[in-house]
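Troubleshooting: if your tokenizer reports a length mismatch, compare your output against this known-good record of 107 residues.
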Amino acid sequence: MAHTPWPANFLVAYDTLSDIYRHAYHILKHEDADPLQLTYHLEAITADAIPLLEAFEVDPRGLEVWDWLSDAATLLGNLSVQLSSFRQNIETRVDGDIVFAKPVTLS
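Known-good structure output:
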């Protein structure tokens, strides 16, 4: 295994952040995404990614990666806005081909 100057917790956090971003970005490319999927990825950013970035920020070694932290926060923030917008568009979409059936009571 190659030696890295970064502590293991930094590397694990980096991998986690990369996974969160990659999976959320991937869902934006699917036109058939549903609001539940989008909500899941928004919550992953809020509940998992943001706390990791905050942990980097308060760690003394976080100053060494300040530019990367800033870029990562910007990317995740923009992705969050895109996911929210996509979810809102899906939830408020009007589809002219959809017909709602009226229930019939059988006697």
